Amino acid sequence: MNLSTAEKLIAHARAEAEKGGFAVCIAIVDAAAHPVAFARMDGANIGPADVSQKKARTAALFQTDSLQLGQAAQPGGAIYTLEHTNGGLISFGGGVVLRDRNGTVIGAVGVAGATTEADEAIAQSVAASLR
Hints:
Elements: H1 3-19, E1 25-30, E2 35-40, H2 47-62, H3 66-72, E3 95-99, E4 105-112, H4 116-128
Antiparallel strand pairs: 1-2, 1-4, 3-4
Helix pairs in contact: 1-4
């Protein structure tokens, strides 16, 4: 993941959020979960800034979308309390793995600040833009 690509992905996410009337925070990390780019749209709350970064880190560290991980992280699930590992993770929608055209993981995007469903849709749209 390079900065130029990350900035294009953030622009895509912003456009998708604006279509829905949302102001969100968007984090892009590389395949090792290191930050590459971040944006907090005008009008976005402050709290989702941390949430977006944790969503992206979660997806990158486990190479699995945060929504999918969340299904197994429920009480009684195989990875219950996953959120308390790796300095804090998120196990609900909005963190999506980013793959290049060859299917290689290049990073992840985290979107937070809209509804969970809208966060997930925006993040999935970002991932689809790479294909």
